Amino acid sequence: MSITTFTEEHTEGYNLQWKIKSILHQEKSAYQEITVADTVQFGRCLILDGAMQITVQDAFIYHELMAHICLASHRQPRNVLIIGGGDGGIIKEVLKHPMVEKVTLVEIDERVVALSKKYLPEFSRSLDHPKVSVVIQDGFDFIAKHQNHFDVILVDSSDPSGPAAPLFSKKFYQLVQEALKQEGIFTAQIGSPLFELDKLKTVYERVKSLFPIARYYMASIPTYSTGPYSLIYGSKGIDPLSPRDVPYLEGLTQYYTPEIHRAAFALPPFIHNAIVGK
Ligand code: SAM
């Protein structure tokens, strides 16, 4: 077996290097360069435009954190929208909540969905569930056509360059706010506090200006490798620090527990002071 390497150019002066057993697929889609590879340490992975997106080994941390924090906070999450997430990993977690009736996934790139179906079945199996509809469209355009419609919106996008850039704009957060019902909740991945504190502060302020409750939460995810990785939570009224009991998740999660739920919102002072203020 010949081992090659993939170098992720993360930030000026900071690269990550992965040992790769094999490249399973590589192509340039209409939106991005897509690579599916088998890594030595983290199993199969999806790389978009040279940025590592998910690995089979640790994606559960990110998927569980994004899905269960919102779904356990909402009192009756029935209608869920996911923007991005064409691999299906977030859907897999959302479907663990029996009260969810309908999940719509809006992914811009049909090739991500097709390649995930072929190479990443542990995530993509969920895409074929009868409660799930997959829409191939720009999430920005889709959400602009929906008002007062969803209980929960989960934004599992790539980083803010290329097709995902508009998903970090104030206009997009306003459209999310309008697309949510009265008790609605949303979350989005927003990046690394150690590398992108200014960006995180800008996102926090945009969300805070539109939602009565805006909170920042974190987990360490080895694939993203930069220490804590962060998400933003916005809601029209439900505080995530008082989640519902979710006994049905017991035994079904590898990362999420009610204790982890609350702990994820604990911020060290260098992050709290820079983002939320002193
Ligand atoms: N969890 C990963 C991370 O944080 O690195 C991201 C997962 S990856 C599946 C994100 C997906 O968002 C990609 O499949 C990409 O095609 C999709 N995406 C990017 N921009 C989008 C847009 N404007 N509308 C819908 N999907 C988009």
TrEMBL record:
Family: Belongs to the spermidine/spermine synthase family.
Gene Ontology annotations for the cellular component aspect, listed alphabetically: cytosol
GO biological process: spermidine biosynthetic process
Enzyme nomenclature, EC number: 2.5.1.16
Catalytic reactions of this protein: S-adenosyl 3-(methylsulfanyl)propylamine + putrescine = S-methyl-5'-thioadenosine + spermidine + H(+)
Swiss-Prot/TrEMBL keywords: Polyamine biosynthesis, Spermidine biosynthesis, Transferase
Pfam families according to UniProt: Spermine_synt_N (PF17284), Spermine_synth (PF01564)
Catalytic residues (positions): 156
Protein name as annotated: Polyamine aminopropyltransferase
Function recorded in the entry: Catalyzes the irreversible transfer of a propylamine group from the amino donor S-adenosylmethioninamine (decarboxy-AdoMet) to putrescine (1,4-diaminobutane) to yield spermidine.
Entry GO MF terms: spermidine synthase activity
Provenance organism: Heliorestis convoluta
This protein's pathway: Amine and polyamine biosynthesis; spermidine biosynthesis; spermidine from putrescine: step 1/1
Binding locations of spermidine: 63, 87, 156-159
Binding site for S-methyl-5'-thioadenosine: 32, 107, 138-139, 163
Subunit structure: Homodimer or homotetramer.
Residue ranges occupied by any PABS domain in the UniProt entry: 3-236
